[in-house]
Amino acid sequence: MYKTAMLGCGGRARAHADAYRFVKGGKLAAICDMNEELLTNFGNDFGISSRYTDLDEMLEKEKPDVLHIVTAPVLRGTSERIRYPLMKQASDHGVPAAIVEKPIAVESEDWKQLAGLAEETQTKFVVNTQLNFHPKNLELKQDVAEGRIGEIKFIDASARSTPVDQAPHVLQLVSSYIDNSRPIRVLGQVAGAQDLDSTQPSPMHAAAQVIYENGLHVSLAFGASVGTRVPIDSGNHTHKRVFVVGTKGFVHWRFSSWERATPEGGYESGPLDYGEQDVVAQGNLTNAVFNWLDDENNVHPTHLKQSLAEFNLLLGIYYSGVTSQIIDLPFEPPDGLIDILREKL
Questions:
Q1: For residues 115 and 113, what is the distance between their CA atoms, to the nearest angstrom?
Q2: At what angle do helices 108-120 and 83-92 cross, to 10 degrees?
Q3: Number of Cβ atoms within 10 Å of the Cβ of 311
Q4: DSSP β-bridge partners for residue 298
Q5: Segment 234-260, tens digit of pLDDT
Q6: Could you tell me which residues are beta bridge partners of residue 246?
Q7: How many CB atoms lie within 10 A of CB 176?
Q8: For residue 304, what is the DSSP state?
Q9: What is the pTM of this model?
Q10: Kind and range of the H or E run holding 99
Q11: pLDDT tens for residues 176-218?
């Protein structure tokens, strides 16, 4: 039974904790947050008595096998990027594995820091892009893997939220349908400066045409101009989708519905309850971390280097948009990319 701990006791952390209903082989044993009210309420609600306001103290005393880092990428009320220092802290303490909330980075500088960390750390970092583990996505991916739609010819994927908010989910989902093939070239466009000074700095909109190393062509779009809300009175985050077209049929996963066409089954479709799917997916993602700890060959599909490659693609979209150039990937993004976007947009 693996021992786990949680850094951050806000709303997103509650989703991590609630998913332990579906977690096998591990138990959430300790929590940490500088906000004592959040810490107390979280501990009371989930029955966790080991509570800390200092991360070093928790890691020294509890020595967890897995640490959930469930914090925003930018310290609230400041412009300080905190993904790298918290992950470095976990690495320095020798934490065997850590689950980090998305986005893994927000700009060039923290991406470079994490790329360096990925080369030297012994900690098995994974990014919490859990759509990969939704039960219906697992089913549709199995259809693709077993050739039921034939050879994949094209993927179209989108999300209505800002690129940095939901692109990590969508880009990882695309990767999951093509065995984590890496992107090698992108032509992108960006628009909208309203969110560049937020805690998740990002253009408002982005679109791109991407070529992957397996030769596949992928079309991407992010932002409030994409599609329609599903349902119409819900938030932008409720539009996430991936449409995989093959020589014999297709599969199409969406936030609240799915559809599939195969020679054997014809056309099929149905509704989805995202909440029900997501809590199971969160449990599946955590279980997959334990599987990786059990066996080095069971590499987690959202491991740090894979997620950094996907974020490098996002940075490539940004840079392509401001330079009007096709970007070969992976690429070394310039420092100050958010400032460049601010100037251009």
A1: 6
A2: 10
A3: 27
A4: none
A5: 666 668 999 999 999 999 999 999 999
A6: 152
A7: 21
A8: H
A9: 0.95
A10: strand 97-100
A11: 999 999 999 999 999 999 999 888 899 999 999 999 999 999 9
